[in-house]
Write the structure tokens for this entry.
Amino acid sequence: MQMNILLMGYYGQRNIGDDLFVHQLTHYFSEKSTVQKIFVFCQEDYYPKISDKVQFFPATQLSKLKKIGLILKSDLIFWGGGTLSFGDKPTNLLQIQALSQFLGKKFGFLGIGLEGITSELQQPNYEIFNKADILYFRDNSSYELFREKSPHHSWVFLGGDLAFLDLDLYQPFIKVTPTSSLQHISFSGKFWWGEGRGEFYAKQLMPVIEKYNCMIHLLPGHVGEKRNDNQFHEFLKKYLPRENWELHTWDKPEEFLRILSQMDFHLGNRLHSIILADLLGIPNIGIDKQDSKIGHYIDKTGLLSKERRVDFMEEISLDRIEGISREYHYLDAFIKNESQQAIHCLETLL
């Protein structure tokens, strides 16, 4: 039986995690003989053409009638990957879900996390998950929360983050030799952070700069015109010695991977900067609260869970960085299991 799949998410916005989801999902589905077409809704279409099966539809080309037409042509409609935490009613997504199901299509979420959504979750934000035909969560906390509130939902899965789907993507970039020094350290902040936070994190980096005369590589996880993490990095670099920082950018995920692969250590508040550091074998620290997507991910790895996560504006000592660097090891078994679980979830859905 031939089928068409429609994918949507935070696509075409130059975010490293979501661009990886597009890469992973389009490659995976295009290799399936049962999949005839893959339609992708995105903000911008800058993705390489990998198969005649894949068609991208940027926002400028997506009228309401066009959306309805593509839903009519599709058999499965998926929101693929990312964190879903709705401050306001997700009206547009609810409408697409309702229309899809009215037309007899299956609607689901793949590889998602529910950061910021508590057990007191109320309607209408919760109904978008409760009414989904298929739910595939990437972390235990999100999975257990949903299971607690909807124990009888039959198509609910726990699997790996979609970034782990095809591990071949990362093979050319894996750090083969363990880190023996701290000469190159990358930092990934958020575009909306202010100058005070820039001054604070520069202060945390100064001891390692003074001891190792290292280079701080400011590596944005989100680029583009409106939401560019380098907006924050401009603040951060003001408080670092000029000879000890380098500001980066990228167009394709492979460029991000190439830069990250040259690092001896990474610090970041972007979840997929931490995931990619693990995939490449780079010791790292995630900056976020414990009950967060970064906290949930690091807990899931089981490696230095307390050491590798710090709260916002929590001091990061040189001893902590050096200790993690010494004790960190490549998460081979975890990474393979995440990949196998992601593949298993998608195979089951198909």
Summary: Residues 195-212 form the longest helix (18 residues). DSSP finds twelve helices and 13 strands in the chain. The mean pLDDT is 94. The two ends are 11 Å apart (CA to CA).
